[in-house]
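Support reply, case 0932

Customer input (verbatim):
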Amino acid sequence: MRDSGAGPLPAPRDVGTPQNPAADRLGRDPSHAPDGTAPNRTRQQARDKMTIAARAASVLAAALCIVTAPAGAQDEGAEIYEANCAPCHQSDGVGEPPAFPELAGNEGLADAALIIQRVHYGLEAMPAFPDFGAEEIAAVASYIRSSWENDFGTLSEDEAEELLASVEPPGGGASQSIWDGVYTEEQASGARLIYQGACAACHGTRMNGAPDSADMSPAPPLAGTAFMRHWQGSTVGSLYEFTRVSMPISNPGQFSDQQYIDIIAYMLSYHGAPAGDEPLEPDLEALNDIRIEPEETDDQE
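Our regenerated output:
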């Protein structure tokens, strides 16, 4: 979780990777094969990327079907955490840095407003949980602030309700909206074949989450009301970072940065956002200046 307003969270601790004791005793690099080559390292890196992607997809799916527990303070917080947060941050809070920061010993948890902002609006690889009310947020915030030897105190439902009413979305200071013509028609149409080849199998040709392949499970929608409900208040930069780190689930990071942002341009075009004169570029600072929000109607003006 990187903060866009309340100060950066501290860098997560590198938890490392498991070692091979037998290889260590033989004086070999455990990531290498017996002949000195490194195919094991390549396979491990691929497995690590797929693990991160699977957890990202799992937590995003959880956001579409939020599980809450009956009233019960710490027990409620633990159950909400296990159902919605543990797929990425792990049951023991060690996370999967850098995509999913460690929560055990994370000094950023001292800022209750920051926790509520992240849970309610999401950021980058973390999806939003807008359906959580003050009770659920207070329960899960209290759980992570007091677990794994954390000692940041609990949060009452009244405190959570007050903070929930005051926190701004991470993209609150963005000067542009997706409705301001932030991509070009040529850019979006050029990414159509990439999307159909790498994304439609899970997310569907119509981006409705109905997979084109009968062998694939449904995936989160990438356009329409469900998409907007979970990304509203975030920025195109957050969407870009999430996509670049975790998609496609079978091989995260397989495209160039420009191809990832071109795919997002295609998603915006399918969602109905108008094209403009300048293409989207993989410039995170510029992308974080573009809000994801519903189209403003005449009644709202």
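We compared this against your earlier run and they match. Two observations from our side: The longest helix spans residues 39-64. The beta strands are 176-177, 290-291. Please reopen the case if you see a mismatch on your end.
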